[in-house]
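tool_call: predict_structure(chain=1)
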Amino acid sequence: MKTLATTIVTFIAAALMGLNASAYPTEDTEKADKAIIVIDMQNDFVEPEGVLTVDGAKATIPAIQDLIKYGRENKWKIIYIVRDHRTSGLDVDAPRIPLFTDGKPGYCVPGTWGNAIVDGLTPEKDDLVVSKFRNSAFFNTQLDLILRRLGVKTVILAGTQYPNCVRGTANDAMSYDYETVVCTDACSAKTPEVAEANIFDMRNMGIKCISLDEVKKTYK
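tool_result:
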């Protein structure tokens, strides 16, 4: 009996050692120390015909394209954040529920023109697309999990718009201890005054708000 017990214990120990050696092979997954997070550059927010057009958003497309190109050259991960809302408005922010009721079509509903990422910023094969339902790209999404698995330390934000989704995402990124950079040429608001006010606030929080040229000079 002693021999049998010893054999069983040895077998279990070996099995556990094998499990521990292979249970978390995270070093074998894709890695990137920096990620560009492109926020809400969808037709309903960018195009003039969109339900919630941000006046300054379309003008930032060339800067976002340039930022993404630079990121690809340096092997940064490109992550698109998109709003995806049910036609009922069940998952939308409470103040925007009226956009989904009384026969209204809502916005950013999957399968609609408004939900699509704007022309010129179509994700490539290895890019990631993460859905969200609130302002912050981190709130109840997979974003933090993905960034940590990648090994990302620095996030560079682009997209729209400053007081809502850019600022909410930047604040949460800083709270999660990512080095947080807002590329000011690649973000937008309804007016330049709104943009400047939010940049002022974020800088005072400790969030880096710098131009595309400064991003290129500072990060490789």
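agent: The chain has seven helices and six strands. Proceeding to next step.
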